Amino acid sequence: MWTLQSTLQRHGLGPVAGVDEAGRGACAGPLVVAACVLRPGDARRLEGLTDSKLLGPALREEFYYRILRRAEDHAVVVIPPAEVDRRGVHIANIEGMRRAVAGLSNPPGYVLTDGFPVHGFGRPTLAVPKGDLTAACVAAASVLAKVTRDRLMVGLDAQYPEYGFAIHKGYNTPLHEEALAGHGPCPEHRFSFVNVAAAAGVGRPGGVVQNGFPDGDTEVGGEQS
After folding, report:
1. pLDDT tens-digit series, residues 130-188
2. Which of 32, 111, 117, 134 could covalently link to 127 via disulfide, CB atoms 3.0 to 4.6 Å apart?
3. Does position 218 have pLDDT exceeding 80, yes or no?
4. 219 annotated to bind ligand
């Protein structure tokens, strides 16, 4: 988990920032992107850190606070549904990663992303396959992004209780589909997604409709990235 980051640090390429997102596959709510720089010697203090999707809610919250206390630097970017619709999920995600890295207090020497390459950071970058499982700083970013987004979805649940956002976090579950069918979408839905567009009765908004589960995201009871 710490090998790649430690190797880059030893070669003078630090600080190393990890970047990850939450909410990419959701059809409602924001896309949240986080960047995180961990202290090289914190492996023992953050033992057990892994991909946020593999941590239960209570353990995610615990790691969230531990990461905030121990991180050398971090930044979180919230991209609203309207921007996701306008740009498309993938482009909005990439732009969010750039904003998150730019939002760090000190420019990192190296950036690690989860899975796919991203350009435009202005510094060396490496796409790490299953980065949230193999690079501690990416895993930390995944926790910051997911906990932030889950809290936002709980807040939206209070505003729109008929949709059950606190339960499924905006992902396409049977409960969510039933609510969409009964109430239609609210302003927090992503109208560029097929199921939302269908529920709104608007067909293909702007000529662009996205898959509710892009790039391998699947329904897992609201625990997706």
Report:
1. 999 999 999 999 999 999 999 999 999 999 999 999 999 999 999 999 999 999 999 99
2. 117
3. no
4. no
Residue 217 lies in a domain: no
Q: Name residue 200's beta-bridge partners.
A: none
26: nearest Cα among 84, 76, 94: 84
The span from the CA of 70 to the CA of 42, in Å, is 8
Within-domain flag for 216: no
pTM: 0.89
Indicate the DSSP class of residue 216. G
Of 120, 141, 156, the residue that ends a domain is 156
Question: Among 156, 176, 191, where does a domain finish?
Answer: 156
- Can you give the residue range of the structural domain that contains 124? 3-156
Known binding residue 217? Answer is: no
> What is the tally of structural domains in the chain?
2
Query: Which residues have CB under 8 Å from 12's CB, separation 6+?
Result: 109
Structure-token match 């999920």, residue found: 89
